[in-house]
Specification:
It is a single chain. The protein is α+β, with helices and mostly antiparallel strands and 652 residues long. Among the domains are: 278 residues, Rossmann fold (3-Layer(aba) Sandwich); 111 residues, Beta Barrel (Lipocalin). 19% of the residues lie in helices and 35% in strands. It is built from eleven helices and 37 strands. The chain has an eight-stranded mixed sheet with strand order 29-30-32-31-33-34-35-36, sandwiched between helices. Strands 2-3-4-5 form a four-stranded antiparallel sheet, with no helix packed on it. The chain has a four-stranded antiparallel sheet with strand order 6-7-8-9, with no helix packed on it. The longest helix has 20 residues. It is globular, with a radius of gyration of 25 Å. 45% of the residues are buried.
Length: 652
């Protein structure tokens, strides 16, 4: 037995020595994807793809046969292609968004542009820049108006028009549906919403049938009408039923609609709702997770056939297992076993489909699959410079919290490690309605490459596990949400996945808050803490940042943060004296979501308490660093910080 103990100790020392002597190629992980989203044109002649730039994205259109660039669309700093749609065989409509940091969610600007596949300058169809200048032109052509737009329906069979939702620039506006010419931007009215901030859903005949919205109170209401011009009728009021119901689309008969329905217990379900009789029939329920992205039919326009599920690893579930699309997915999933398969687009005749293939170790590859010839043709890889065989496996985990709540998450273990690697606990950002998924994550793989196990837990308040689990996080800053992270860490120790002497906690945005609260509440559990673009003074959120600028934002702060006067006691800035381990902080001066003042105040309080603290500030960066040289410096510093306290690898 003594000999076995000595051998085990020697193996652990050798492992630690090997990790410390290795170096991580940070450049390989911070380097941007070659492409993000790719879609096939309806006739299969063209491909449109978003291309990441340093602080923006561009859209590129190529000929599929000749792989020749035909048209491009790009705008200024912080401006992104939020989404794009082939609305005819050779015309693309583009939605634009802005974000001011790498970690920001893009916020749609409400602008829609269009471009033809065969080249020419893009045309602005609707948005605040109308009347200033057209893209690539100094000629004023359209009258400016203060509205935003989003695409509702591409109107199959009509190559000239689409349906859009128009949002006037007002606090909590009433939206309206309008038909828009994709060449001139000229619009005509179709419907007005009966509720504020409404999103519309059409049937298979492109009639506007549902409106889902909420006022400044954030209480969801769903309305339905039988046909264009009819009066709206209330289907669901969250204030009455205690749940949100959201339309997913219509069956072929345009009578049966599919709704995603929240439940008082457990995850959401999918219900077939008879819009004439009012009868409801449950067609899908999973015991653990909500329905994910909807899978629509290829032949009939936008008929919901199934959903993606993120229950641990990704899977698909179909309402009708005999549907041709179900058979197609099963064939593709068998061909690309162990990976997530997703059809991103197809030709109108359904012969060619564009398939995305990805996994925890594969950043993503694209194939064109011929459904008649049963042949897949490789198109391109997002990150061809990374070797998936050298990436770490991400294992789904499940555990019980201290009060008996089921918690789900992921444990990523470095390749080749048989013992206990040093561990970094990484709470996700958000925190509400956001969750971690089984997917390739650059940061997770970078940490695993440096020799660390990575623990990620979807604490209560996270999305994807039903209404009750989501709302259980409300006003639990430093409370149950934090306890879930602590319980997951203790679970990893008790299960033999972590050495209690070699664990640090690190996160970004809310995750940074949880990282600092973690070492304040549990000073003996972690050996260090790191926070990236974090919020650390909760009362400050009510004065600084972009949440409180609208009535619905103020309601959100009251409902999900709580009483401002009571938040000081769960703010890390006021708990610096309880922190006993070294801290690393990083922030950007242009951060609109978690302003840099949070980090500056946290630094001052830590120093006043005698806590060792390192910082990295870039005044020109936002909510996450854009510039590759800044990202490299950040991760070089972060890995060096973890190296000093856990012994992992440093950056090259």
């Amino acid at each position: 037995m003594l000999q076995g103990i000595k051998w085990g100790l020697a193996a652990c020392l050798a492992l630690a020595s090997g990790i410390a002597s290795a170096q991580v190629d940070v450049n390989a992980f911070v380097r941007k994807d070659q492409f993000e989203d790719i879609k096939l044109s309806p006739n299969g002649e063209y491909l449109a793809a978003t291309v990441p730039l340093e602080d923006s994205t561009a859209l590129a259109i190529t000929s599929r046969a000749e792989t020749k660039m035909l048209a491009t669309f790009s705008m200024g700093k912080n401006t992104y292609v939020d989404d794009f749609w082939w609305v005819s065989p050779d015309r693309v409509v583009i939605a634009v968004a802005e974000k001011f940091g790498q970690l920001d969610r893009p916020v749609p600007t409400g602008e829609l542009y269009a471009i033809s596949a065969n080249g020419g300058k893009p045309t602005i169809l609707v948005g605040y820049r109308i009347g200033t200048q057209q893209v690539g032109s100094n000629i004023q052509q359209k009258k400016s108006e203060q509205v935003s737009a989003e695409l509702i329906d591409s109107l199959p069979g009509d190559d000239k028009n689409v349906l859009v939702a128009i949002w006037p620039w007002a606090d909590e506006p009433y939206t309206r549906a309008e038909r828009m010419d994709v060449f001139t931007g000229r619009r005509s009215p179709v419907a007005r919403a009966p509720v504020r901030r409404a999103h519309f859903t059409t049937d298979n005949a492109s009639a506007v049938r549902f409106a889902l919205g909420a006022g400044g109170d954030n209480v969801s209401k769903l309305f339905h009408r039988a046909r264009d011009g009819d009066e709206w009728k209330l289907v669901n009021d969250e204030a009455v039923t205690g749940r949100i119901e959201a339309p997913l689309g219509f069956a072929e008969d345009n009578r049966i609609a599919y709704l995603q329905v929240e439940q008082s217990q457990g995850p959401d379900t999918v219900v077939a709702y008879d819009t004439v009789s009012g009868e409801r029939k449950e067609v899908f329920r999973n015991a653990n997770v909500d329905p994910g992205t909807v899978i629509y039919s290829n032949g009939v326009r936008d008929v919901p056939l199934g959903v993606f599920l993120a229950d641990g690893k990704w899977s698909t579930a179909f309402f009708d297992s005999k549907a041709p699309e179900a058979h197609l997915y099963r064939s593709l999933e068998a061909a690309f076993a162990g990976q997530r398969v997703r059809i991103t687009s197809s030709t109108d005749d359904g012969r060619l489909v564009l398939v995305s293939v990805s996994s925890d170790r594969n950043p993503g590859e694209f194939y064109i699959f011929d459904t008649q010839a049963k042949k897949a043709e490789f198109l391109l890889a997002r990150r061809q410079w990374l070797d998936s065989e050298k990436m770490a496996d991400m294992h789904p985990i499940r555990l019980k919290s201290r009060d008996g709540v089921d918690l789900h998450g992921y444990l990523t273990v470095p390749r080749g490690v048989s013992g206990k690697a040093p561990m970094i606990v990484v709470p996700h950002g958000g925190p509400f309605g956001v969750r971690d998924y089984w997917a390739f994550e650059e940061e997770t793989q970078m940490l695993a490459n440096a020799g660390y196990s990575v623990l990620q837990i979807n604490f209560r308040g996270s999305g994807g596990y039903g209404r009750r689990f989501h709302q259980a996080g409300a006003q639990q800053w430093g409370g149950a949400m934090q306890d879930d992270v602590t319980d997951a860490t203790r679970w990893a120790i008790s299960e033999g996945h972590a050495d209690p002497a070699r664990i640090c906690i690190y996160g970004a945005s809310y995750g940074a808050y949880a990282a600092l609260m973690g070492v304040a509440k549990e000073p003996a559990l972690y050996k260090c803490s790191a926070g990236y673009v974090g919020l650390y003074d909760l009362p400050m959120v009510f004065q600084r940042g972009d949440i409180q600028e609208t009535m619905s934002g103020e309601t959100f702060l009251r409902d999900w943060y709580g009483d401002k006067a009571k938040l000081a006691v769960v703010s890390p800035t006021n708990l610096a004296g309880q922190i006993k381990v070294p801290v690393f902080l990083a922030a950007g001066g242009e951060d609109k979501r978690t302003p840099i003042q949070h980090t500056e105040l946290m630094e001052r309080r830590l120093k006043a308490a005698g806590v060792p603290v390192e910082t990295l500030y870039y005044k020109t960066e936002g909510h996450g660093f854009y510039k590759p040289e800044h990202q490299k410096e950040y991760y070089t510093r972060l890995l060096a910080f973890f190296n000093r306290h856990l012994g992992g690898a440093t950056a090259k």
